[in-house]
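Let's practice the habit of predicting before peeking. Look at the sequence and jot down your guess about where helices and strands might fall. Then scroll down.
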Amino acid sequence: MDGAAVTGKRAARQAASLSDAGLSGGPAIPLNQRDEPQVVEPPSEVIEPGRALALADFAPPSVGPGEALIRLAYRMGVSGSTLARPFGKPARPRLLATVDSPISGDRAVGMALRAGHFLVYGVKAPITQIDFTPSARLTPPFERTVHGFMWLRDLCASAPREQCTATAERVLTAWLGATPKTGGKGAAWTVENAGRRLLGWLVHAPLILSGDNARLRSRTLAAMEDTARWLDRHAGKAPDGLAQVAGWSAIVAAGLLLPDGKPRRLFGEAGLVRALGELVGDDGGVLSRSPLAQAEAIALLIELRACYRAVRREPPSAIEAMLAMLVPPLLGLTHGDGGLGSWQGAGAVTAERIAALISASGVRTRPLKDARQWGYQRATGGKAVLQFDAAPPPLARHARSGCASTLAFELSHGPQRIVVNCGGAAFAGGQVPARIEQGLRGTAAHSTLSLGDTNSTAVLLHGKLGAGVGEVEIDRRMLALENGGATRLEASHDGYVARHGIIHRRILTLRDDGRELRGDDLLVPAGKKGKRGKIALTIRFHIGPGIELGLAENGRGAGLALPDGSYWQFRCGELGEGVTLSVEESMWVDGQGRPQPIEQLVIQGLVPRGGATVSWLFKRMG
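Done guessing? Here is the structure:
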């Protein structure tokens, strides 16, 4: 251990030792002696997520009788060329316009491609060693990159187009040579990958169609039309809302940019608007509750809107309305450093990526704080940001990297993340080993309470979830205290009722100056009479990267030495017999999918089944 680490440990122990001496030189205040709160009614002003939306915003675009008939005929199987020019020859394959996408890629990933490697979440794989056949066994991140052509955006960002064309043609040629022309099975022919691939080909067409290889250009245009026809038949059969939106977006883009496309565009717009209406909840959060899926939905609509602009058409109002809905919930999960919190499998996506995406969307709004259906509560005070998962996990049909994270929280102060979740399950297959993906989705990987060493909701294979939390009650209030106000969040869930007959209730109170977060974890019997005996309780607080921990000598507190030189204190209330506080190793996945070693504070022991309360406190010192 280097000298800085030793100094940090010593400072953390010194901070922890102050639990008996009070904070900032003042007397110690037991956790059960609280300022007498006064409830303040929420202000009448509503935090608007952009603008008021009506159900009509997500109705199929209004068309005349003639266009409605064309849309119906196309859906019934009449070809677009027959409908567009019933007495003429089909138009020759070509692209009608060049799209200028406002979304920039990752330059480092593009540079790696030009050097001959795919770079996916920190893992390099030589292009020559990639099996492009649809049946090849690739990890999910590589499947999305290779078969969804996600790399085109990154390649565009790495250098002028003339320097990238050869690399793009090399990969495209290998892929076309290994993939059936008319669709099939495997990762290449899922609706989501096919949709992303076609949309990427259309948006970044100059990269793959401007070379000197006329035969490759002809094959690529034919592959575009083949993929569009395949999506016409399969987009509505995708397993979840985001995959459907990817498929329908590609259909609409093909209708805009390929010849004789009006019937396909009309057909695709109706399907897309329907899929968008089914993708999100009333407050704009996608039903998978994944911030990664939220960001991907925004990116799809931004690129589709760019396709409309390329042909000088106005997109349906539903696209702008949906962007206005999607952005505020995503901003609600940003921390003081501007990056995303680690929820539902996401890693801590960087502030630069989020800021670039929001800028490209053109939406100017505030973070959504009180999202009941999206399920994440956001509270701010001073420089502190608190994120709280106060909703059931997503239903199995919506879950992608579903996590048993109910009543977990994250806390940041300025650019420093103090309490985090492990995150990163959606990045498994890169530097995050695929074998630990289920562990990263479990309750223990989140800063919350677990009973009997079990998950609050069953974690299944392939990102799905089973039985567990079915109902969450949430109450949000503003408190007026003697020395300032606070935001109080109280929530409870029933995830342990069926197995243990116990309800978990958590109360979080963040002061308006952002210097103190108080918490109470209560175990409440679900019936009138609690069960006898004891049960194993574990409360985990995964501590952010770069923070040094030191336990207090009395075993009821810890000091946190932050990289910026500031100090925080963690204190527990009275712990029952056999209940202890310890420091253990943990892991946190950053925005590039790289696992980082961190530590966690763990309260664990046996508590009565008839009910128990554990109180704790995070407080900034000095």
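How did you do? The two ends are 27 Å apart (CA to CA).
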